[in-house]
Batch of 2 targets.
Target 1
Amino acid sequence: MTADHAPCPGPSTRRDFLRWGTLGLGGFGLSDRLRMRAAALDAPAAPDTSVIFVWLPGGPPHMETYDMKPDAPSDYRGDFRPIATNVPGVEVCEHLPLHAKCADKYTLVRSIAHEFADHGGGHKRFLTGRKPATPTGFVNDAPAVGSIVAKMRERIDVGLPNYVSGTNPGRAGVDVYSFGAAYLGPSYVPFNVPGDPSDPKFEVKNLGLSPKVADRLDDRRRMLAGFDRLRSNVDGSGLMDAMDSFNQQAVDLLTSDKARNAFDLSQEPDSLRDRYGRHAWGQRALLARRLVEAGSSFVTMVMENPYTSGVEWLKQGTYNWDSHAVNCHLFDDALVRLPIYDQAVTALVEDLHDRGLTKKVLLVVTGEFGRTPRINAQKGTKTGVEQPGRDHWPRAMSMLLCGGGMRHGQVVGSTNSKGEHPQTRPLTPNDLWATVYNHLGIDPETTFPDHSGRPMPILPFGRPIPELL
């Protein structure tokens, strides 16, 4: 059930939202996206709800975070100890003290499991709600849930992307994390925002217009208007008029302030930015809150590499949550990783509550699987010495949820005394996605044709988790 994994460099972004350099006369651009939205205007109105999905690639250790086993043998329980939270009977890791102070504001799920132990298979199984055709590789053969949401909500026009992702530079490709849209097509992949939002030089490319570019855009607008009028004069079908309308909407979206404002973290008080943490994870979490508050439907933020924004690299640390002994010293790496994670996630939880967003927004924080309950020791590839680690373990995992109108301060499900498998309330990733679709007002029995034309339900099985409704 184990597999070694080196972080994939990933391809660069395959398409950029807004494409203002070409503005939609060739290829698939904003005008195509707007055309499809218009075609869906007769669909029922979607509820004013959204999802923030915090993705922890590599697989966080459930027994060093949310499902500790202090009474298990030492080679299972590890070095860390649980601490009490402000909810009686609920404990978390001692290195998550901010979690302990606000446990009444979130819910832990400890009993989700699946069968795919490879990173690629685990990503695909978790993110698509389907058993992948191949147990390895990151290219989806079914759409990721975010792409389904983008498709189902394509008619919604709030002046900024409906589906956004935030990643490190060089990790923006949809196949790095199995974010692909498969047979839905490339128009439903996320608008990616690479980089560290805590960096003073951080900017969202494609949204800023310098005066020189604005002048060029005005010139192009006038040129397109004249050209389109000429084509419209010789077109009796009305199709050219429709094209003019869609191109005009694309230009209007580009030049509006809505998207730029939503991405502008400088509008937030310094005290709040400090609470989230002046690092990539914290500022991504804050950006996610701004985006859903402004109307985006599904925002994915990747919290993968903590060794950024001035955090010193450990020789015995690793890039993502893949805590094999050959990759890192499990506990030393966690001592760097967990405080950053603790700060960012709890700031987001508290901010959603403080701003009255817990009915509108559903927050999900998870990786693709947990880690082996039993610790093993191996020689580290970077350190050359024996060090502890845990391998891949899809048979048990833990996750945090907040909002969605749910009751907070609870734990759903449990694992056995050694953290090996669900003991009560066994669940699958599909039950989580059924809950997400329920929150978004999406019928999971909706079908879309795959590449062969067969109608495929967006979720083949799974039921909403009653405790979360």
Target 2
Amino acid sequence: MHDFHAPTFVLIAGLVSALMGWVLLALRRNYPPDIEGLREWGLACLACACATLIYKLETLLGRSITSISGAALMLLGFVLFYSGSARFWQQREHLRWMAAWSVVAWVAMVIFSVVWPDYRGRASALALGLAGITAAHFWVVWRHAKGLGGALVKAVTGVQCAVLVLRGISTWWVDAPDTTRFAPGLIQTIYLATFAISALMMSVSAQLVSSERVRRMLENLATHDSLTGVLVRRAWLQAAGREWARWQRNGSPMAVLMLDIDHFKRVNDQHGHAVGDAVLKHFAQEVRDLLRPFDRLARYGGEEFIVLAPDTQNEGALGMGQRICQTVADRAAQAGLPAVTVSVGAAVADAGDTSLDALVARADAALYRAKQAGRNRVVVD
């Protein structure tokens, strides 16, 4: 601890925070606008960097000005870290409470800097003020952060909060009223080290969780239809292939339902493609709401959709198709869209099916018979 030079350590922490802040702000320009919070995280790093610069200039600015302005920037930086996480995980921001808490801590800093100078009061007010904000930050990430980046954010905020509470309480018996900011001591060393490492780890965590979010978005784009949000044909075939293999191994029943919106071309011709797209989106949502969690709905092409229904026999497939027909016919007009109906063809896997393609072909043939019979009905092969 004799070799530990606190001012240099704080300066390094400030430089790291500034660098990471600029990196996060640069990433914000390159990432999709749906990913929020990067701006707040970047500004938080810059605010903490400015605070460390002010602390470094204590001999030039004076102890009171340094304490008051540095504390204000530190509190702002921690609030911005909290705000960035709340925005990233799309949670409500309690900024009024955070602002009120920060003002109380800052006023206490002013009192112990100007009115009643006491290092212990300043250290306690700042540390406990930051601890309160960090506790709220930890609560947000604890409930919503996932993956490696999320785990890192939880660890950083959790350790940071514990160290801040320890610093805010311990100062009353390990320090004196005239102790200086960079006086050597075990707890002060831990406090400064935690601050420096936390700035780096929070920046790294922000980049990790953002990258993970981008990866999930790309995966979703690759497997889901951009208009309706249901699976694309390739992803559905992969899921159906796994279910087909399960049926071959142990005979677990499975059904395939082909859905086709009746006279959809007429909707486009009479109302335009924008209305047609709205009909498709509404149709997909209505069908998805009727399915079980383990059923799989996909857009098979144009206005044609396909459902994979595991553990479903003929009666179950018929009932599912009838519910879809009834719901679509009843609710389209309620949504302010042109009324449409749907034809359904269903097939249940049996010993005569030599492949998944054969099962899908049977469902498609049943759909053709439903249309030939007058549409708005279900035919089970």
